[in-house]
User: What shape does this take?
Amino acid sequence: MERTFDPEGLRPAAFVCEPDPRSTMFAVVDLKTGAARNVELGDHHGMIAALTLHAGVPQEVAQHFETARNLYLYAWFVYRFYPIAEQQGFACLELALRDRLKSEIAAGVMGKRPTLRPLLKYAVEHGLIRNEGFEIWRNRGAINSRARVEMEKIREMTENNLERITWDESEVEVTEEDLRWDYAAMLVDVLPRLRNEYAHGSTNLHNLALMSMRIVCETINQLYPAPA
Assistant: This one.
């Protein structure tokens, strides 16, 4: 009879290295062949290993981020580490902002004790954090431009009563309209709210912490100049 353990309780010593059953419920799909397989520890490790801070980030900030990365990694074994990893990521972001803006904080330009939101707001308004620094914002333009071309072709098919239509990839060009999305300004409102949910106690349990940690990573990398 197969032995099992309660993933919500203290892990028995015999099962310390066993994955949380919820971690293996997902699949990896090959987009070229359509073949699917169960997600493995190597896949999980690869996703978090891809998020790295450049060498220009101070060591004390980088170490906090390494803690968040390890929490995410070990969530493979304890599913409830995901929200803790996300919370640690937000704490690392605030640490980085306080370090980067220490002169402005000392001068009182954001009030006596600025919290995460005014720190983020100041960094965005003064160009330390920009839309261009986020992968999702850059991809947003490509997604919108492709959707626009596809809609135009559908309209052309309908108007000309065509059964099929083709187009060249060169027709997919990102325009200013496609990029008109102030992602950085949106984060000023969203990130502090997410952080506060954890700070005041939350029952949220999901494995989407990677998205938040990517934002934290890309934000911190913008705050400090990268070495040549």
